[in-house]
User: What shape does this take?
Amino acid sequence: MSPDSKPESKPAFKGLSTSQLRPGFPDFLDLPWHLPLLQWEGHCARLEALPRGESRHPVVFVAYGPVTFALKAMAPGQAEHEYLLLKAMAERGLPVVTAVGHAVVETDEGEASVLITRYLEHSLPYHSLFLQSSLSRYREHLLDALAGLLVQLHLSHVYWGDCSLFNTLFLRDAGTLQAYLVDAETSQVLSSLGPGLRQADLDLMEENVAGGLLDLVAMGALPADFPAFDLAADIRRRYDGLWSEVSRVDHLRADERFKITERVRALNALGFSVGEVSLTRSDGELDRLELRVAVTDRSFHRRLLHSLTGLEVQEQQALQMVNEVNELRADLGREKHRSVSLSAAAYAWLEERYKPTVKALAAIQTEVEPAELYCQLLEHKWYLSEAAQRDVGLEAALTSFLTNHGVAPATV
Ligand SMILES: Nc1ncnc2c1ncn2[C@@H]1O[C@H](COP(=O)(O)OP(=O)(O)OP(=O)(O)O)[C@@H](O)[C@H]1O
Ligand SMILES: [Mg+2]
Assistant: This one.
């Protein structure tokens, strides 16, 4: 710049410059975009105070009716980058927060980009699993959930680059947990993922998880001798176990074709959908085959239940519900002395069992979402039946479950 040239004038405009949003969501135009996110307090009636993990970037939550969104302010360009990554991961069927859009804003502090995601309802940040004693039963599942999430990402050729407890949200899933990726900033969606990157992700995971747990030790939420590093190493072991289950090559004889069905069923039971099975004749051995399976996602029962009933629930919840549908199908078949289709059984289950029960369960004051509460009821029924040495039935279990929760009994 020459000494007498005028400095470039700053744009007088403050607020939202551009936004790119997916359809079906609010336009967010009424938000005080001219202010940095952390100054919205007192200027935005939509702000919601919700628990969240530690982060370098400012994050706020805003509510539009019953739906809440997370807004994260980042350097220019970064929000669009993360938005595209989250979208690509969702297209691969991965459990990630839903990307809604991104915006470019101009505030007193300069230009920024803002990532908008849908708030993951009922999600639990990891520290609440350790700080709230009512959630302690879920803790051990955290290890499987995180290992499972990494396996799913890697199967879809996604390198996370920042796997940590802070960057993961947990949803209750039939007494277990499903982990969701919340921070994709460092991720790479690739066409293939070699062992080097997988190991790098696992190394980062171990370091970050141990760090996150040591934070809780420092806060006094966990005892001073808590084995943070052992726990992190345990996640890696669980990852290795699951990874070898999905990626191993089986050897079979030509007359052992039933093993193909067995392998697919075993993977389905773990929730994995199998996209393709490939068989190759082993070198020089006419009678030997190598079996490889290509796993597409870990939503086998979710998809099945959704196609049968339209319900959207987590994988383990769906597994239990599909089992119920199958049991009902067998009962109906016996009653009617003929076979009943799976869709007919699913319809009967939804209308006569699930919907009325969830309606009755709504009398319970709880933050637990309906599908999880329904699964808790199934577990209660199982305990009662074990004790009675016979199937006590859903109605009796519901009455007892409601009574235990201080609600006057109702009938299904
Ligand atoms: N869609 C969402 N639903 C629920 N919680 C969310 C959502 N988006 C963000 N959060 C909360 O905000 C926190 C911070 O978000 P995020 O990890 O993306 O920020 P960050 O600044 O990129 O983090 P880092 O410091 O790891 O780079 C998360 O740990 C999570 O608790
Ligand atoms: Mg983060």
